[in-house]
């Protein structure tokens, strides 16, 4: 059987009635030269009809390996749990959307622990492979000096790096102020008249913010009931345990919506009224928080915007290192519903 001849840019140009360079501009998404909308549409229609596929090796030869990698973004995340989380799904969606709009590509998504393999590290973390890197919540996987050595190796290889959802000395970042958000959440419960308040979530700046609200109210911080939970199942089991022991607080700040939804499930199953018996406020505002019973009062975090801003820093060349590192903190706001 005769092998089918590969379609080239020259074939596309001839069929579309344009120059080869114009085809190249459309394929690369270059902003260096404007192409009339009707011409761009005609070229794309021909590409679709002929089934043209770019020759990556030829592009690399033409642009140079680093030039070819310029628009390739690497994404490193902490663990598989991020794929299961609605919160992180919105952030990753923001990254992909912004990359597409700016003609950039997410070249790979990898777990941080995979980069401990030197072969894989050298294959992926290289300026001829990617032009920039986003490190999403990677602090959750850093457990000691050896892990920080990997961060240092990354910094030596890749110039444009954005830490997303965490801060690392000398690297640019996009975050939300966890402490201020936790403070606002607890402050709202005080405003509503609740005094017996607990916190269920991870032990980070969100908890520190809740404790700050106690100090602002001239309350004894030791009166704050603190319970640790990170996932939806943890919220369910922790509230179940407190209920059985007769220790449920009158109002609870949850570190995340997912933990709150798990807790809400248990209380609903056991016909414990929300907010009549236990009031809820949380942090995140994932989509499902508006569909719970009752709808969850929560602090809105700009999840999609975090992903978008990370990509924009890369595109605008503001993802600098060292003393020029840019740190962006996005504001949060209260979304009041029926749970408190």
How would you describe the overall organization of this protein?
By secondary structure, the chain is of the alpha/beta class. The protein has 14 helices and 12 strands. The strands form 2 sheets. A 6-stranded parallel β-sheet has the order 2-1-3-4-5-11, covered by helices on one side. Helix 11 (205-216) links the parallel strand 6 and strand 7. The model has no long low-confidence stretch (mean pLDDT 91).
Summarize the structure.
By secondary structure, the protein is of the alpha/beta class. The protein is built from 14 helices and 12 strands.
How is this fold's topology laid out?
Layout: H1 9-16, H2 20-28, H3 37-50, H4 56-63, H5 65-69, E1 72-77, H6 81-84, H7 86-101, E2 105-111, H8 118-124, E3 132-136, H9 145-157, E4 160-164, E5 172-176, H10 178-191, E6 197-201, H11 205-216, E7 225-228, H12 232-245, E8 251-254, H13 257-269, E9 279-284, E10 298-300, H14 303-315, E11 327-330, E12 333-335
Parallel strand pairs: 1-2, 1-3, 3-4, 4-5, 5-11, 6-7, 6-8, 8-9, 9-10
Antiparallel strand pairs: 10-12
Helix pairs in contact: 1-2, 1-3, 7-14, 10-11, 12-13
Cα distance spanning the termini: 72 Å
Let me know the average pLDDT: 91
SSE succession: HHHHHEHHEHEHEEHEHEHEHEEHEE
The fraction of residues in strands falls at 15-25%
**Cross-sheet strand order for the largest sheet:** 2-1-3-4-5-11
Label the structural class.
alpha/beta
Radius of gyration from CA coordinates: 25 Å
Number of DSSP helices?
A: 14
Give helix % range.
40-55%
Beta strands, count: 12
Report the major sheet. 6 strands, parallel
Any low-confidence stretches, pLDDT <50, length ≥5?
none
Overall shape: elongated
């Amino acid at each position: 059987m005769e092998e089918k001849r590969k379609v080239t840019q020259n074939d596309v140009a001839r069929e579309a009635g344009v120059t080869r360079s114009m085809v190249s501009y459309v394929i690369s998404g270059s902003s260096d030269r404007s192409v009339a909308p009707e011409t761009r549409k005609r070229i794309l229609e021909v590409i679709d009809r002929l089934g043209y596929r770019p020759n990556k090796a030829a592009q690399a030869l033409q642009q140079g390996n680093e030039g070819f990698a310029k628009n390739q973004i690497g994404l490193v995340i902490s663990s598989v749990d991020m794929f299961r989380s609605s919160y992180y799904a919105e952030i990753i969606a923001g990254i992909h959307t912004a990359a597409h709009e700016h003609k950039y590509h997410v070249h790979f998504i990898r777990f941080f622990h995979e980069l401990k393999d030197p072969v894989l590290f050298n294959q992926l973390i290289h300026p001829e492979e990617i032009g920039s890197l986003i490190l999403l919540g990677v602090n959750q996987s850093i457990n000691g000096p050896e892990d920080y050595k990997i961060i240092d190796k990354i910094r030596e290889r890749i110039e444009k790096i954005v830490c997303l959802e965490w801060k690392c000395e000398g690297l640019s970042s996009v975050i939300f102020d966890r402490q201020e958000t936790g403070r606002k959440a607890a402050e709202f419960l005080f405003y509503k008249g609740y005094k017996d308040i607990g916190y269920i979530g991870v032990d980070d700046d969100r908890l520190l913010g809740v404790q700050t609200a106690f100090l602002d109210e001239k309350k004894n911080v030791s009166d704050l009931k603190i319970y640790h939970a990170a996932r939806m199942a943890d919220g369910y089991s922790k509230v179940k345990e407190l209920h059985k022991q007769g220790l449920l607080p009158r109002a609870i700040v949850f570190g995340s919506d997912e933990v709150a939804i798990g807790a809400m499930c248990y209380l609903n199953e056991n016909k414990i009224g929300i907010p009549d018996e236990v009031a809820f406020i949380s942090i995140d505002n994932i989509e499902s928080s508006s569909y719970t019973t009752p709808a969850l009062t929560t602090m809105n975090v700009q999840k999609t915007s975090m992903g978008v801003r990370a990509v924009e820093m890369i595109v605008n060349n503001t993802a600098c290192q060292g003393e020029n590192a840019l740190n962006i903190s996005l504001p949060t706001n209260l979304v009041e519903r029926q749970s408190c």
